[in-house]
Amino acid sequence: MKESESYEDISSSDDDDNEETKNSNQGNNKQVSKCDILLGRTLQVVTIVLLLLSNYIVYSLFLRRWFKEDRKFYLMIRGIELDNTGTCLFILYQTFFFLAIISYFKASLSDPGFLKNLKPPSELLEENQIIYCQKCPDKKWKPQRAHHCKTCQKCVFRMDHHCTWINNCVGLKNQKYFILFLVHCEIYCILLIIYLVFSAVLLYQNTPKLFMLFIGMTWKHLVAILFIVLSALFIFLINEFLSDQYDCLKTNQTTVESYKEKFGRPYSFFNQLQLVFGQDQFYWLIPTKPKYNCNYLELLYNGEELAEMLQSNADFIEDHFYNQQSEIYEACRKYKVS
């Protein structure tokens, strides 16, 4: 009797300890999550301020200084105090500025692919292929290509990573906006460096003595130098991100999946681009919402499994998603990403 009592005491004590540990971990996760969100919001403000300030610096130090239009007739027509060359340079620069800032807001504010309560596909997948998220409060079905974000406290389909700069996860539904932000921001930074360096060369050529350059420097010139350095740094960092995105698209995997050495069903690189950017190539470089051709039933494979299946011409479940002749086509359509 004493032995059973002592066993129950130890057992209940262990359960209490486990519960306390679990609650402690949940509390720590919530605290980390709040810190990440606060940092993310701060970086959002910093990003927007940097974009707006750099835009003003380029206009005032380069375009308005060297390409100013003094003829009132043309000022009235254009509505901007720049000559023909300045207007063309202005339009080019502003195009990528607005594309970058719109892509940023869309990547930041769009749903990255948060999972809804989907019915587990027990009739389509084997029992060992169906998993439930133990971190979500309702422990809902989690597709194999979904990952639980500790910052957002939600499961995200095809989650690549949680990006603090956009204060949001990068998942299937906002990956296009994230990549476009990187691309347009890099072009924007390149143009900024070219414009400001060219302005510095013109200023040097039009200044009789070198020391007069330093005497005539204002806060705008100092900020311009800072932006040239920052832009060069951002170009380097953006290239690293773009390289990662390219590798993931090429192998049909997310950054999270690459850590686990898991892959999605292999497609051509062009088909992968269509899955992320949409079927219409005309809109690939514009931050518009694509029509997705993906399915929550997609499975993950390791390298050996893929090699064996490809060698034996095995049937992938993904092949049934778009084959209207397939017996399970209609059942698979219920799990199409919209």
TrEMBL record:
Region (Disordered): 1-29
Amino acid composition bias (Acidic residues), ranges on this chain: 1-19
A cellular component term, taken from the record's GO annotations: membrane
Domain Palmitoyltransferase DHHC: 129-261
Superkingdom assignment: Eukaryota
GO molecular function: protein-cysteine S-palmitoyltransferase activity
Pfam families assigned: DHHC
Organism, scientific name: Tetrahymena thermophila (strain SB210)
Signal peptide: none
Membrane topology: Multi-pass membrane protein
InterPro entries: Palmitoyltrfase_DHHC, PFA4/ZDH16/20/ERF2-like
Enzyme Commission code: 2.3.1.225
Species lineage: Eukaryota, Sar, Alveolata, Ciliophora, Intramacronucleata
Chemical reaction(s) catalysed: L-cysteinyl-[protein] + hexadecanoyl-CoA = S-hexadecanoyl-L-cysteinyl-[protein] + CoA
Transmembrane segments: 43-63, 84-105, 177-198, 210-238
Localization annotation: Membrane
Principal location: membrane
Domain comment, as recorded: The DHHC domain is required for palmitoyltransferase activity.
Family: Belongs to the DHHC palmitoyltransferase family.
Protein name: Palmitoyltransferase
UniProt keywords, alphabetically: Acyltransferase, Membrane, Transferase, Transmembrane, Transmembrane helix
